[in-house]
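Researcher: We plan to redesign the surface later, but first we want a full-length starting point. Tokens attached.
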């Protein structure tokens, strides 16, 4: 459902994109405010995207933990409100720079994001040097004990 407004938008079907977005908002306003924000950012609607990011903060949307790696916000990265927003939620590059990767994941190289626009946005990080040498690992930023953010610790 989240990908539908973006797919229609990418295909140039504005009316269908608008209808899918309206349905998404009607059904999932509080639970998916973060996701609605990145749909709007993808569509180039910066003002509305920031409104929904504020709602995501208000609703304590756990998706905000993904914001540093969510490429669907790329259209608003140059907006003067972007960095102050990240700072307000503790996710600015400077704030995240106080964290470091520990253990085997310290050899993270090359980030390949997959599943863009889907509820289960995923991230593939490769290679990771494990006890047995290089290997690939799959991390889901949405949570679980294998989430990428569980690899970070505060310095």
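Model: Full-length starting sequence:
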């Amino acid at each position: 459902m989240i990908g539908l407004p973006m797919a229609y938008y990418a295909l140039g079907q504005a009316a269908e994109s608008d209808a899918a977005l309206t349905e998404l908002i009607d059904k999932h306003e509080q639970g998916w405010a973060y996701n609605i924000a990145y749909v709007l950012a993808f569509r180039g609607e910066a003002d509305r995207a920031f409104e929904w990011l504020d709602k995501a903060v208000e609703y304590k949307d756990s998706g905000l933990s993904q914001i540093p790696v969510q490429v669907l916000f790329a259209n608003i990265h140059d907006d003067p409100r972007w960095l102050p927003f990240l700072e307000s939620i503790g996710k600015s590059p400077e704030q995240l720079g106080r964290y470091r990767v520990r253990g085997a994941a310290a050899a993270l190289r090359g980030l390949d994001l997959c599943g863009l626009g889907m509820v289960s946005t995923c991230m593939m990080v490769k290679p990771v040097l494990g006890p047995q040498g290089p290997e690939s690992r799959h991390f889901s930023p949405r949570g679980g004990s294998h989430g990428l953010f569980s690899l970070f610790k505060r310095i």
